Amino acid sequence: MSSSATNAAAWDRHSAAYQQGASLPTDVAHYGPDIATEAELRLLGDLQGKRVLELGCGGAQCSIAFAKHGAVALGVDFSAEQLAFAKRLCEREGVRVELHHGDLADLAFVRAESIDLVFSSYAFGYVEDLSRVFRQVHRVLKRGASLVFSLPHPAYDMIDDDDPDNPLLIRRSYFDRRPIDYEWNGIEFTDYHHTISELYMGLTRTGYRVDLLAEPEPNQSGPRSIFWREAFRYVPRTLVVRARKEGI
After folding, report:
1. Residue 53 forms beta bridges with which residues?
2. Do the beta carbons of residue 105 and residue 132 sit within 8 Å?
């Protein structure tokens, strides 16, 4: 089974528990656990009338938020169970999101230069070949339009935040490119480590201009999510990137 299929199967098994525990908002786009949302970061601009494509939409909470702000929202995910949840949630929220089941780089259903914004929150860590995704996104984006995505910060891969006594000890080299296999509630997943320089060079070589790199600090107050670890206070948990399409 391919790594993509393995993660898709894992998310099919994990979807119900994840959605119940995460309780993600449907009125604003989120970038990661226990950090500011789009309401504070303001990276996407006015979405009224824009065609917005979300990659790795999961339960479509962000896509629903885009639709509520006047966008024509499209979502892609490799998990059938996540998309089934997304369909039910769209019906409950009373909005329309065009949902597609497939690999995040399989965007043949989208016309070239027809998308005003591509967004992804915490899905690219499951993708081994991000350059393929960047190329397909570049094809569907209008010139000057943005790809905005977040993913687990590559520095965070160096520690083991499940160790109750020494969570901040470095256990893995930042330069170790091997896949990261782990269990979540007894279900096996695979993450892929992408260094900041690899992300930057992958984008620039594909024809993007990177205009923002953000490492949001954890929220100082308010309730914590089920994903919270004290290590968030010391090591950046999330990396946010915005890149604009250049070239032909």
Report:
1. 74, 118
2. yes
What are the structural domains of the chain?
Answer: 3-153+195-245 (3.40.50.150)
100, 32 contact by CB (below 8 A): no
As a whole number of angstroms, the distance between CA 240 and CA 236 comes to 11
Contact predicate 147/141, CB 8 Å:
yes
The H or E element that residue 188 is part of is: strand 187-191
Amino acid at 169: L
Q: Which of these, 85, 116, 91, lies nearest to 12 by C-alpha position?
A: 85
Which tokens sit at 115? 């998308």
Residue 248 and residue 214 in contact, taking contact as beta carbons nearer than 8 Å: no
* Mean pLDDT per 10-residue interval, the chain, length 248 residues: 79 96 96 97 98 98 98 98 98 98 96 98 97 98 98 97 93 96 93 97 98 96 91 97 88
Token pair for residue 135?
């190329």
Q: 0.90 exceeded by the pTM?
A: yes
When computed from its CA atoms, the radius of gyration of the chain, rounded to whole angstroms, is 17
